[in-house]
Specification:
Helix content: 25-40%
Number of domains: 2
Number of strands: 8
Strand content: 25-35%
Strand order of the largest sheet: 1-4-3-2
Mean pLDDT: 86
Distance between the termini: 30 Å
Length: 164
Amino acid sequence: MVPVTLRQARWAVRGAQYGPVMAAHIDLTLDCRDAQLLAAFWKTALGYVDEPPPAPFKTREEWLAQFDLPDDPDDDAAWLCDPAGVGPRLSILTVPEPKTAKNRLHIDIRVPGHGTPAERWARVRAESDRLTEAGGSVLEEVDGHHFVMADPEGNEFCVAAGPA
């Protein structure tokens, strides 16, 4: 294939110099005041589950013990994963400082399904309602397009129609 854009040409040169380029796996980390509250919300929102500890450890506590961290009763965390193994892992970490500004990076929850624009919007609205019942709040409704929402600690995310 002949590169057709400058970006494709750069990647072709990089591949020739350094070998094939692999997609990076990412984790998302949320700082919070109450890790268990946010974990419950995001498990509901994304259908995620508690991630098991890395092998060969049987518990997260056993895994954490290897790092010889100071014992802090206020230190709490949760690790979530997509049970299908497709989406990024979520690390939810308790921190002492509060959220002070709008997120520069946020999660978009895409609601799948076919149908007319009205049918797709009805599914987006239903998902927004479900997440409100789970503890989220609507910050803004862009009618027919998306909802800007916040999780129980004020972290912004959007709910919009996904690919059909």
